[in-house]
Amino acid sequence: MKTRINGSTRDYVYQTIKKRIIYLELKPGTKISEKEIAENLEVSRTPVREAFIKLAQEELVGIYPQSGTIVSKIDLGHVEEARFARENIERAIVRMACTDFDDEQLFGLETNIALQELCLGKEGTHHRLFDLDEEFHKRLYEGCNKLRIYKMIQQMNSHFDRLRVLRLATNTDWNVVVSQHKEIYQAIVERNMDKAEKLMVNHLKLVNFEKDELKFRYPDYF
Known about the structure:
Layout: H1 9-22, E1 31-32, H2 34-41, H3 45-57, E2 61-64, E3 68-71, H4 76-100, H5 103-119, H6 126-143, H7 147-154, H8 158-170, H9 175-189, H10 193-204, H11 211-217
Antiparallel strand pairs: 1-3, 2-3
């Protein structure tokens, strides 16, 4: 059994399985085995069982007595609820960033965008781009001293995140996403709160334009 240096084995197992679900490595509708996960991660079955319960509470898996544990399908109702929450919180966050961010925090955003640009045109980097996208938004919360709100939002964001990963994997023209981040950053640099808010709202509505197409192309995921 592997020893975890930081954090509990349960947290390690939970975070690992959750990431695999978000990344769509464990596809919606897939049956997952407590025994197989434990063997794969070289842990006992107890932390896997505990992780399954936590993931079920987040509606990422369903635990059925006769069928076992199955990765939940992407629920578009949950997607919209998370998108709505983020839109209305982050429009306020980005306005605060226009007044609160100092040069170091702005440099952090600029560096993040530069790393996003390195992903453009490179196959197999959509997971990396997704992580950088997450980091960009997290930096906004953190810079406004609202990191606890970010962590709260993450608890309801999983279905929204899976749709975003599916979009990045399907449509490799990522210029739209990266350019929107650049525009938001520039509005913050200019201290233009109204512009930054409008750009953020438009950015978080991007997923609405493609969810029907994604549902058509991947009906088994929904």
